[in-house]
Design goal:
mainly alpha; 7 helices; 88% helix
Length: 233
Amino acid sequence: MAQNNRHLETSYLDKRAWLRALVLGADDGVISIAALLMSLLFAQVSPATLWISGISAILAGGLSIGIGEYVSVSAQKDTEQAAIEIERVRLEQDPQNELNELVLIYIDKGLSRDLAVQVAKELSQKDGLAAHISDDLKIVEEAQPFQAAYVSCVAFIVGGGLPFLVAIFTNTLFEHKTIPIISTGIATIASLAFLGYSTAKMSHAPITKSLRRLLVGGIAALIITSLLGMVLA
């Protein structure tokens, strides 16, 4: 049982980075594209304008968030690598002082001094740098810039694609302009609800809290941009 629990914890840590990129990209895609579409629908723009604006926003947003994640995670990785290199040099120059650091860390975590010394020595003998990376620097997984970039980019495009397709389809099919607005709003709320539920299940987080977090912000964005479209109409 303990081994199974450890496997679950490790699996969660392994997927934490791409899960963050997935949620960020999809949430941004759904809300930003849907908000833009609601503004355009209330302003009663032409179908051609709706097409061009929607596709341009989806592609530009996907590329933007992908590049942004790559730059951000790359900077994080550079910072982590620099800290690891400093730790490596310190281990070579003053191993005893680094050992004492580990001892103090384990004492702060609740171990007795004797046990902390024993644990620090055993971990240092096995892989002292790894022990400092996880317990001193608190780095539990290596940053992956390319992974964060493509996951967030694809998630944005998929997330923004659903309200876009609903808006285009209903705006083309129905002459009454209220139907595309209502349909796009429902599709957006449903997408956010699904995203919030899925994220909570994957991360073992409270479902209600996750849903509230996404829905409140998403609905607020739709209302604000809808009012803007009404003013500009």
